[in-house]
């Protein structure tokens, strides 16, 4: 999350190249020529101890010999020299280095470690090593060995592959697509994907961010940065290694289902990142996102001179979840008047193969004015009758005029000229019209825009409130797990699993552990006495899947049947798995629900993203059916519903024929509870409930397996160390007693607090709102409040205070950390009619204590000079108060922790 000094590296005012070579065919020489060709406007110097001149440019022997201090040092020197070069640059005050060279190695004693240590002494930032370099058209800097320099534009590309970055530059040159920046990150010795996401998310020149990823090192940092960036602009990723499987063999069904790529897919979805499958689709995304804004809906109108290609476009649109726009009566009437009677009369608007530029213009004008569509796709199949180039010129002129008249409210217009020559492509691209080689590519481009809008909406949704009745016995559940680990066991026993599920209010069939045949008969008699039937299962820590050894017998109705079945199960297991430890048999009540659906729910452990929640169709053939979806915890009800909806079995949860629908949210609540269990008990490594029977009465777990072990700290910082997304920090809930015995309940803000915030703001005067936001605030939109309430708790915290007697919200205080998590900026707002009762003081102390617990070193804030009450409270709390040198009406306040 560190943007510290990145502006110095990516928009430097001065650059030095260390290691430029006199050899014409070398990386150092290529970088030198690229910097010169790009005509970098700042100061530029060469450092080479063996050559006084390279390519007609003077060089000095060392950085110390330069007559200026370079903000950025670009290093193409041999690996062994790099730590010394960084140390020398740091002593001079250089902000950072771009290490193009490879060969630094890894591990203790390596040049890699030495370079980090040298940079750390001076707070320098490092990009690379082993990278293509950086290309920043906005500042005319091409510090790379790529073959071309991209033009200026609004796309940022962050790539783990230098070859992919170079390929994007070549493609962009052909299509007239420009970039705000291209960064090849190489081995990510310091600056990583998350840092650059933070940087480009705040860069006003960047409209969309493209990522090429091979692997992620710090999942929590990536998730926090990606979620923050995706809220404000499209983030598109292509990841290689889609077919790779998890690094370890899974012991449970859920573990087997949670392959590595499926987890990455779940992470990208949770972060609001748009995933594409290959470079061609990434190019299409760049084509679309680099030119137009997302539409307000997904109704697409299609204008074409070929009926077949129009129908293909509609087919693909529907397949991808778009909606073919319906023509309004007014639009149809106008088209009837402007077009020959042979036109299609519907969408796609087929204006027939002999359509010329004038006919295209007449139809396009009608579609642009029609409010029953959200975007227009113009298709052209070249014919000998009308000039495709003339049609393209007319379309671009009309689109330009339309955009000028409608400004930011203009709907997107996309194009596909099949078989178009480069001149037509350049004409469309030059006019800012996204264009594609086929109708399929164009429709996908449109759906990328739609998906981004949907992502932003999803990230700002207010999830439903959790039922107040769900209060798990986390302490009791933790005791079950820790006792098993202390006993040296890796798996919980069946009765322990039943007790664990009961602690989280998840129903399971009556379950008993019988050490021998006669004990099994005794437990079975208890079930028979209640009118039930019995199922027996082998009980062994070493037999993962019971059915593999015939270890499950169903529908037992008599003691003799139980006796015989138990004896057979034990004998068969000993014969087929003589090495396995056999603990006896599990005796369960047989649940017969003819119309119940068999589901699988569970937790798996991923080496990169930690705990993952799995949901899908259950049963013994679960891996073969492979109907599953994954999500990163924590979950709320809406996220759980989304997880369920991504599977085919979700359709069976609805009513059909004589089968009633599954009880509303019964399955979703189990998923939420499992996610909470994973947060409370990080010792749980894997968890299978298979099957979970679901019907109109609710859900019941029939069988489950739980793997446990000492907790593994995957992620630094507070919150569950096994979660890539920080969970709701319930440990920070506080009850406060203020003046006159006023009792306050303060807790971290939650997404579902949005309605509460709106109500609270009705009790704050315009004057107090101006003091808080530094400007008059007449309206608070859903989007504005959603940004305040949608916290990931990794970089921001807000405490919301309630009057315990009335339940009304009375105040809020928030803290947002800086990019290197050393300091945080606070803000506070109280109900205007409740000021002066000690609430502000209490909330400020709470946020200060939180900042200390997170390891922050400084809390700061901006306060209007006229806000004398806040300034006085800051002084009493120990803040240093100083006038802002740039803003005469503002005071800077700072507290060293």
From TrEMBL:
Where the record annotates domain N-acetyltransferase, the positions are 744-897
* Top-level taxon of the source organism: Bacteria
Mind telling me which InterPro entries this protein's record contains? Acyl-CoA_Synth/Transferase (IPR051538), Acyl_CoA_acyltransferase (IPR016181), ATP_grasp_subdomain_1 (IPR013815), CoA-bd (IPR003781), GNAT_dom (IPR000182), Ligase_CoA_dom (IPR043938), NAD(P)-bd_dom_sf (IPR036291), Succ_CoA_lig_flav_dom (IPR032875)
Q: Which UniProt keywords apply?
A: ATP-binding, Ligase, Nucleotide-binding, Transferase, Tricarboxylic acid cycle
SUPFAM superfamilies assigned to the protein according to its UniProt record, in alphabetical order = Acyl-CoA N-acyltransferases (Nat) (SSF55729), Glutathione synthetase ATP-binding domain-like (SSF56059), NAD(P)-binding Rossmann-fold domains (SSF51735), Succinyl-CoA synthetase domains (SSF52210)
One family name in Pfam for this protein: ATP-grasp_5
GO terms (molecular function) for this protein are: acetate-CoA ligase (ADP-forming) activity; acyltransferase activity, transferring groups other than amino-acyl groups; ATP binding
Tell me the Gene Ontology biological-process terms attached to this UniProt entry.
Answer: tricarboxylic acid cycle
| Annotated family | In the N-terminal section; belongs to the acetate CoA ligase alpha subunit family.
Q: Protein name, please?
A: GCN5 family acetyltransferase
């Amino acid at each position: 999350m560190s943007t510290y000094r990145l502006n110095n590296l990516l928009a430097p005012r001065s650059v030095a190249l260390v290691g430029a070579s006199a050899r014409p065919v070398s990386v150092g020489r290529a970088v030198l020529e690229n910097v010169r060709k790009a005509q970098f406007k700042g100061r530029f110097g060469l450092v080479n101890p063996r050559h006084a001149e390279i390519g007609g440019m003077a060089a000095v022997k060392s950085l110390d010999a330069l007559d200026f201090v370079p903000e950025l040092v670009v290093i193409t020197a041999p690996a062994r020299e790099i730590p010394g070069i960084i140390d020398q640059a740091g002593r001079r005050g250089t902000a950072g280095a771009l290490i193009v060279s490879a060969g630094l190695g890894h591990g203790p004693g390596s040049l890699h470690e030495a370079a980090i240590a040298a940079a750390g002494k001076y707070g320098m930032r490092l990009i690379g090593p082993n990278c293509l370099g950086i290309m920043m058209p906005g500042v005319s800097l091409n510090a790379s060995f790529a073959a071309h320099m991209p033009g200026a534009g609004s796309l940022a590309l962050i790539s783990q592959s230098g070859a992919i970055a170079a390929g994007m530059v070549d493609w962009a040159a052909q299509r007239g697509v420009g970039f705000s920046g291209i960064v090849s990150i190489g081995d990510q010795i310091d600056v990583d994907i998350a840092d650059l996401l933070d940087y480009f998310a705040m860069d006003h020149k960047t409209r969309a961010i493209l990522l090429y990823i091979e692997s992620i090192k710090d999942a929590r940092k990536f998730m926090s940065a990606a979620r923050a960036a995706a809220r404000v602009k499209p983030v598109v990723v292509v990841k290689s290694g889609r077919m790779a499987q998890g690094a370890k063999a899974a012991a449970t069904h859920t573990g087997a289902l949670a392959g590595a790529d499926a987890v990455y897919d779940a992470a990208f979805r949770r972060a609001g990142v748009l995933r594409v499958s290959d470079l061609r689709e990434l190019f299409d995304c760049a084509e679309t996102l680099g030119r137009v804004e997302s539409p307000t809906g997904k109704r697409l109108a299609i204008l074409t001179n070929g009926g077949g290609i129009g129908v293909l476009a509609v087919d693909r649109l529907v397949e991808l979840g778009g909606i073919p726009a319906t023509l309004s009566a007014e639009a149809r009437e106008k088209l009837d008047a402007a077009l020959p009677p042979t036109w299609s009369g519907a969408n796609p608007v087929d204006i027939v193969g002999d359509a010329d530029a004038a006919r295209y213009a007449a139809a396009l004008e009608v579609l642009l004015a029609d409010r029953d569509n959200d975007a227009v796709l113009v298709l052209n199949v070249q014919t000998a009758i009308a000039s495709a180039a003339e049609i393209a010129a007319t379309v671009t002129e009309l689109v330009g005029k339309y955009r000028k008249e409608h400004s930011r409210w203009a709907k997107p217009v996309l194009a596909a000229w099949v078989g178009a020559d480069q001149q037509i492509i350049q004409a469309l691209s030059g006019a800012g019209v996204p264009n594609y080689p086929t109708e399929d590519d164009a429709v996908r481009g449109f759906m990328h825009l739609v998906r981004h809008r949907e992502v932003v909406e999803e990230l700002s949704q207010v999830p439903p409130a959790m039922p107040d009745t769900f209060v798990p016995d986390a302490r009791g559940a933790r005791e079950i797990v820790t006792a098993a680990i202390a006993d040296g066991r890796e798996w919980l026993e069946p009765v322990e699993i039943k007790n664990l599920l009961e602690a989280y209010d998840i129903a399971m069939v009556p379950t008993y552990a019988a050490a021998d045949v006669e004990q099994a008969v005794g437990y079975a008699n208890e079930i028979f006495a209640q009118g039930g039937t019995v199922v027996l299962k082998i009980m062994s820590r070493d037999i993962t899947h019971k059915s593999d050894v015939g270890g499950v017998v169903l529908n037992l109705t008599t003691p003799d049947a139980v006796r015989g079945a138990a004896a057979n199960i034990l004998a068969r297991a000993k014969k087929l798995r003589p090495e396995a430890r056999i603990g006896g048999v599990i005796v369960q009540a047989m649940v017969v629900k003819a119309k119940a659906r068999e589901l699988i729910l569970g937790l798996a452990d991923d080496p990169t993203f930690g705990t993952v929640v799995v949901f899908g169709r259950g049963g013994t053939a679960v891996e073969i059916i492979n109907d599953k979806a994954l999500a990163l915890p924590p979950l709320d009800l809406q996220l759980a519903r989304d997880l369920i909806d991504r599977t085919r079995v979700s359709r069976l949860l609805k009513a059909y024929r004589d089968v009633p629908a599954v009880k509303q949210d019964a399955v979703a609540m189990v998923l939420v509870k499992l996610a909470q269990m994973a947060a409370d008990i990080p010792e749980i490594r894997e968890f299978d409930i298979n099957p979970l029977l679901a019907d109109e009465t609710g859900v019941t777990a029939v069988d489950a397996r739980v793997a446990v072990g000492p907790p593994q700290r995957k992620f630094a910082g507070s919150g569950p160390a096994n979660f890539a997304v920080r969970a709701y920090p319930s440990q920070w809930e506080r009850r406060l007693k203020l003046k006159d015995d006023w009792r306050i309940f303060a807790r971290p803000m939650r997404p579902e607090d949005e309605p509460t915030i709106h109500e609270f703001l009705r009790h704050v005067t315009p004057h107090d709102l101006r003091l808080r936001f530094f400007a008059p605030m007449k309206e608070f939109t859903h989007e504005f409040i959603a940004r305040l309430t949608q916290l990931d708790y990794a970089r921001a915290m807000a405490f919301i205070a309630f009057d315990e007697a009335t339940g009304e919200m009375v105040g809020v205080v928030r803290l947002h950390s800086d990019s290197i998590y050393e300091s945080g900026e606070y803000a506070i707002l109280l109900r205007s009619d409740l000021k002066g009762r000690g609430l502000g003081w209490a909330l400020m102390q709470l946020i200060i204590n939180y900042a200390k617990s997170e390891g922050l070193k400084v809390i700061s804030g901006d306060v209007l000079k006229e806000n004398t009450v806040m300034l006085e409270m800051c002084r009493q709390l120990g803040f240093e108060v100083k006038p802002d040198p740039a803003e005469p009406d503002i005071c800077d306040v700072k507290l060293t922790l």
